[in-house]
Amino acid sequence: MHDRVYKTDDEWRQDLTPEQYRVMRQGETEAPFSGAFVDHHAQGIYCCAGCGHTLFASKAKFDPGTGWPSFWAPIRAGHVAHHEDRSSFLRIRTEVACDRCGAHLGHVFDDGPPPTGLRYSINSAALAFESEEQLLKEQFVEEGFLEEQALEEDVGAPA
């Protein structure tokens, strides 16, 4: 179980960029092909830009050509919440939100690839990215193999 994050509207406005606030707190959608993670191929973890909660692994990312980062599954069951979205008069959709802070992330559709057949279409503005290299460094610090200042250094840099 993860701790819920609760903030006032003023706190969200202070912590998020105007675009993030518009997407994550007002439920809007960024323009297709405009987000930072549409053509992003690094290995790592995509987290909620509002609270840092882990959401999706790069290994589940695929390109359906829609203009938004897409994933066939969240990193863990329960890390994203699903809600009925009736905001479009054309059809009922399923909204995807961060289960920790409630931020709007995007929508999920049933036209994705195997093994799930799902396409989590996520706004880049709602995401932050941690590379595998950064995650490994943080784990080594937590386990006492590296000192905190090692996080600031590049792994494999010439001595």
What does this structure look like?
By secondary structure, this protein is of the alpha+beta class. It is 16% helix and 25% strand. The chain contains 3 helices and 9 strands. It has helices spanning 9-15, 18-24, 132-142; strands at 44-48, 54-57, 61-62, 70-71, 80-85, 93-98, 104-109, 119-122, 127-131. A 6-stranded antiparallel sheet has the order 3-4-8-7-6-5, with no helix packed on it. It has a 3-stranded antiparallel sheet with strand order 2-1-9. A hairpin with a 5-residue loop joins β1 and β2 (54-57). The relative contact order is 0.19. Mean pLDDT is 88; it is low at 155-159.
What are the main properties of this structure?
six-stranded antiparallel β-sheet; single chain; three-stranded antiparallel β-sheet; alpha+beta; disordered C terminus; 3 helices; 159 residues; 25% strand
- Please give the radius of gyration in angstroms: 17 Å
Query: What average pLDDT do the residues reach?
Result: 88
User: Helical amount among residues, as a percent range?
Assistant: 10-25%
Biggest sheet features: 6 strands, antiparallel
Q: In total, how many beta strands? A: 9
Distance between the termini: 42 Å
* Series of secondary-structure elements, N-terminal to C-terminal: HHEEEEEEEEEH
Q: Which stretches are low in confidence, meaning pLDDT under 50 for 5 or more residues running?
A: 155-159
Strand content: 25-35%
Q: Which class of secondary structure composition applies to the elements?
A: alpha+beta
User: Order of strands across the biggest sheet?
Assistant: 3-4-8-7-6-5
Helical stretch count?
3
Based on CA inertia axes, which overall geometry fits? globular
